[in-house]
Design goal:
Elements (H helix, E strand, L loop, with lengths): L4 H19 L5 H7 L3 H9 L3 H8 L3 H7 L2 H28 L1 H20 L7 H18 L10 H15 L6 H7 L3 H9 L3 H28 L1 H19 L3 E8 L5 E8 L2 H8 L5 H26 L1
Antiparallel strand pairs: 1-2
Helix pairs in contact: 1-2, 1-6, 2-7, 3-12, 4-5, 6-7, 6-11, 7-13, 7-15, 8-13, 9-10, 9-12, 12-13
């Protein structure tokens, strides 16, 4: 597909949005890809990296390989994701540690709007579509209540974590970062990115590359044959994931990590008023609601800007 430099710069910006989302547990880069209109092209481009196209590469037909895998598009997306991950990792780590209620409120509004936006793309609502929506919501909810484990930092487990998490990263509503939380690997990987631990980053990306190529084929097949059901399932994933990003939580069980630090293991959602009673801290209700509204509005602002820029 022939595109202008302006169009590729726009794709880089969309990739940056995906990267920013993928850094945060509970928010999916796939959601950003969907609302910015590059989701299906992304899945199909990744899917095109197969034995046939790899044969072109290994026989020296690099230009044919690049065109076959929509290389310019993939490079622009990956460049945007990389810029965001490398530049935002430290900042988001700080905000999540020091201003969790405000940050999670913003993402709560973001995900609600994303679920509505994705649902708008369903052509016909039927009993089967509603069932698919409910199934996605239940699956995502159950994932959010699984107790996280502590990190296993061997290279083998880092590789497996990358291959599993990347599948979630391209699913709207299922956060790859949250999968890393469940695996006990989130802070370890985030720390590796922040400190430029190249061996860990390389092994993680190797696992991610294998996982995304295999999973994209399945997702592409589902979207071609069962589009409405698949989109409903993805919208359900977003709804179910709201349990994870509810801003006010009470820690009910802790554990001591390998550095001897006390960490939350199990948390339960509580009301803002109960949060103040339990923790002695102000619930920041007005600020939280304002940021939730801002997150909600942002999705439709991004949608409108994307449509204007594509004209």
């Amino acid at each position: 597909m022939n595109r202008s430099i302006k169009e590729y710069l726009l794709i880089v910006l969309k990739g940056m949005g995906m990267g920013a989302a993928d850094v945060v547990p509970g928010v999916s880069g796939g959601t950003i890809a969907f609302i910015t209109g590059i989701y299906q092209e992304l899945i199909n481009s990744i899917k095109s990296v197969n034995f046939k196209t790899l044969q072109l590469f290994f026989t020296g037909k690099f230009k044919d390989f690049w065109n076959a895998v929509n290389g310019n598009f993939l490079l622009a997306v990956v460049l945007g994701i990389g810029i965001s991950v490398l530049s935002l990792a430290k900042g988001l780590e700080y905000l999540l540690n020091h201003h969790p209620i405000l940050i999670w409120s913003f993402f709560f509004g973001l995900i609600i709007a994303s679920a509505i936006y994705v649902g708008k793309d369903i052509a016909q609502w039927k009993a089967s579509t509603f069932l698919s929506l409910a199934t996605g919501a239940v699956i995502a909810y159950l994932i959010t209540v699984i107790t996280p484990s502590e990190a296993h930092t061997s290279y083998t487990f880092v590789f497996l974590s990358g291959s599993i998490a990347i599948c979630a990263m391209i699913l709207p509503g299922i956060s790859g970062s949250f999968i890393l939380v469940l695996l006990g690997m989130y802070k370890f990987i985030l720390g590796a990115v922040s400190s430029f631990n190249l061996p860990v980053i390389a092994v993680f990306l190797g696992g991610a590359s294998i996982g995304i190529i295999l999973f994209s084929n399945l997702l592409s097949w589902l979207l071609k044959r069962y589009y409405d059901l698949t989109i409903a399932l993805l919208a359900g994933f977003m709804i179910g994931s709201l349990n994870k990003v509810w801003p006010w939580k009470e820690v009910v069980e802790t554990f001591v990590d390998r550095h001897g630090e006390l960490k939350p293991l199990i948390e339960q959602n509580i009301l803002p008023t109960n949060y103040e009673v339990i923790t002695g801290n102000q619930p920041l209700l007005i600020g939280a609601i304002s940021l939730a509204v801002a997150g909600f509005a942002l999705i439709f602002v991004v949608e409108g800007l994307s449509k204007k820029l594509q004209k």
